[in-house]
Write a structure and sequence with these properties.
The chain is an alpha/beta fold. The chain is 42% helix and 11% strand. The protein has one domain: TIM Barrel (Alpha-Beta Barrel), CATH 3.20.20. Helix 6 links the parallel strand 5 and strand 6.
Length: 385
């Protein structure tokens, strides 16, 4: 068993063990991938202030996200196709999150269904929806989430139209995938992955197939996907989705202070500062750079979380010190999942937790809920509106 000390170790294993089309799906951004790169590199511009002779005993990373107790303020982000990174991947990730004590968010475009995940877990999980045109499907989807006792609804608002991801097109990634000779050759080299996939019945978008009108098999999914997303989305429509859910609602994809205020106005309980991991609008600012201005706009009137670019516990600490109340990891847990299955997701969470806890201590702090920008050196001009 390889020694795993950082998320990069899991990424190296992941690249070797998962087919290229699914590795590229996770490890890519849109267009030139500038935003994808800067989501991570901009964290490097923030420095910590080390403190000494401070009592570091009795530290706590425990917190809350939308009223839910968490072992650390880190949630597993919604990631489509997670069940193609590892067989039954959503179930594995949800179980790891439950055991560790952090939220798991299931994507609408998951391979395992809401019911699959609920059957194999005992703790409530979060469910993510897109802003789709089909009201009947949306209402039934949300009702299914309620029936499964999901504890929060995450509404993704930055996917009215899809950003172009060059590698997905070249790899033939679609619904269902286009199996080119190059893809088939690569799949043949991933025998461990292939044997696991042969052993599961979950190999299609089970939240959609058999539930959306006209989608009876994977072959009919492509036409539905092309028509499902609503380019005419507005805040009144988002309010309609908010009103379909009785519990906490989190709006994901906010990158501008004006949109943060609109999310507050429609009754969201939290917003996620996120540029979709650099997979939508390329050339936009990183999430961490816009976080301070969004916090200035909404203050403590709404819970502000951060997604996109987090690859370590130090990144988590920087986001929290700037004022975020929670963070999300997507790629970091996917690396672990593809590398080692459920154990890999657990290892990713352990790595991030240790980095968070140790760095917080060396900055002279003992409680993750009392962090502030004083532990950081923030360069002039870093925060941009």
């Amino acid at each position: 068993m390889p020694v795993i000390t950082e998320i990069a170790d899991l990424k190296r294993l992941y690249r070797r063990r998962v087919p290229r089309m699914f590795y590229d799906y996770a490890e890519s951004g849109s267009w030139t991938e500038q935003t994808f790169r800067e989501n991570t590199s901009d964290f490097d511009q923030l420095y910590f202030r080390q403190r000494i002779a401070v009592d570091m005993a009795g530290r706590s990373t425990a917190s809350q996200m939308v009223g839910q107790d968490v072992a650390m303020p880190v949630a597993l982000a919604p990631v489509g196709l997670t069940g193609m990174q590892s067989a039954d991947g959503e179930i594995k990730a949800a179980r790891a999150a439950e055991t560790f004590g952090v939220p798991f968010t299931l994507s609408t475009l998951s391979i395992c269904s809401i019911e699959d995940v609920a059957e194999h877990t005992s703790a409530p999980f979060w469910f993510q929806v897109y802003t789709l045109r089909d009201d009947d499907f949306m209402r039934r989807l949300i009702d299914r989430a309620k029936e499964a006792n999901c504890s929060a609804l995450v509404i993704t608002v930055d996917l009215q139209i899809m950003g172009q991801r060059h590698r997905d097109i070249k790899n033939g990634l679609s619904a269902p995938p286009k199996l080119t000779p190059a893809t088939l050759l690569n799949l043949a080299t991933k025998w461990r992955w292939g044997l696991e996939m042969l052993g599961t019945k979950r190999r299609e978008f089970r939240n959609v197939v058999g539930h959306a009108k006209g989608v009876t098999d994977p072959g009919s999914l492509a036409s539905w996907t092309a028509e499902a997303f609503d380019p005419s989305l507005n805040w009144a429509r988002i309010k309609e989705f908010r009103d379909m859910w009785d519990g906490p609602v989190i709006i994901k994809g906010v990158m501008d202070p004006r949109d943060a205020r609109e999310a507050l106005n429609v009754g969201a309980d939290a917003i996620v500062v996120s540029n979709h991991g650099g997979r939508q609008l390329d050339g936009t600012l990183s999430s961490i750079r816009v976080l301070p201005k969004i916090l200035d706009a909404v203050g403590d009137k709404i819970e502000v979380h951060l997604d996109s670019g987090i690859r370590s516990g130090q990144d988590v600490l920087k986001a929290l010190a700037l004022g975020a109340k929670g963070t999300y990891i997507g790629r970091a847990f996917v690396y672990g999942l593809g590398a080692m299955g459920e154990a890999g997701v657990t290892r990713a969470l352990e790595v991030i937790h240790k980095e968070l806890d140790t760095t917080m201590a060396l900055c002279g702090r003992r409680d993750v809920t009392t962090l502030d920008p004083d532990i950081l050196v923030v360069p002039d001009g870093f925060a941009v509106a």
